[in-house]
Amino acid sequence: MHNTVLNLIGNTPLVESKKLNTNPNVKLYFKLEGHNPGGSVKDRPALRMIKEGLERGDFSKDSQLIEATSGNTGIGLAMVASMYDLAIELVMPENSTVERVQTMRAYGAKVTLTSADIGIEGARDYAKQKVDKEGFIMLNQFGNDDNWKAHYETTGPEIWKDTKGQVTHFISSMGTTGTITGTSTYLKEQNPDIKIVGVQPEEGAKIPGIRKWAPEYVPEIYNPNKVDDILYVNEKEAMAMAKRLAKEEGIFSGMSSGGAATIALRLASQLKSGTIVSIVCDRGDRYLSSHLFE
């Protein structure tokens, strides 16, 4: 796969906050994962899960792949699968934004919508039933080590290089936990004093892309030893910050990025000094049909 759109995955920009961060002794950088060709941080694991799976012989071009997704992973998988001529079915809750559904279908994927009442957990259960009863092969982003290894090999090294090794805090919203697990593993190898902060929704808050899983759905790849602290945001904070990112920093993103930025700014106001990197995991244009930017 040389000289294709897949070569554009990774090496995303790191930009400094010029307005939101008002602490002169702290540098706050946003890593713009929306610059990946599929529009999100999930392009990284999508590529590795398919590429490595094919090379290991976990599946072939004759296989029928399936994956449950809240959106971004599905888009990344649909894009990568199209380049490898693979058939894939993506399962997501019916209340997902129309932009996400249409993007996956544009790449040629089959999209199955499950009841909004059972959420992403229900989508995961549906995909597992197809594996058990119909012979589908699930990429399983929640338990596939290629998910976090993609960030160990790319996201972490990019942050270390672009901050010239000065990063002191890494902030990431937690969904599948691949981003925080892989990036933490790499950064801690370079400097064990770097603080890794995960972001989860407050009790009852619904923030697309950020999850606080019930025990039976906690991703198998999650290693709590990789996260130094977990801080919480509510829906109102995440929405307000997504709007501020666009208006004040020119960064157009979704609500989960707003949640991470909320925590990053909270930390920036408390630290005496430091260099914070916060993941902006996707672009705001896939939320235009939602109430986020009304």
UniProtKB/TrEMBL annotation:
One of its GO terms (molecular function) is cysteine synthase activity. The keyword Signal does not apply. It catalyses: O-acetyl-L-serine + hydrogen sulfide = L-cysteine + acetate. InterPro entries: Cys_synth (IPR005856), Cys_Synth/Cystath_Beta-Synth (IPR050214), P-phosphate_BS (IPR001216), TrpB-like_PALP (IPR001926), TrpB-like_PALP_sf (IPR036052). PANTHER family: CYSTATHIONINE BETA-SYNTHASE. The keyword Amino-acid biosynthesis applies. The gene is cysM. Pathway: Amino-acid biosynthesis; L-cysteine biosynthesis; L-cysteine from L-serine: step 2/2. Keywords: Amino-acid biosynthesis, Cysteine biosynthesis, Pyridoxal phosphate, Transferase. Its EC number is 2.5.1.47. This is cysteine synthase. Its cofactor is pyridoxal 5'-phosphate. It comes from the Bacteria. It comes from Croceitalea vernalis. Belongs to the cysteine synthase/cystathionine beta-synthase family. Residues 6-282 form the Tryptophan synthase beta chain-like PALP domain.
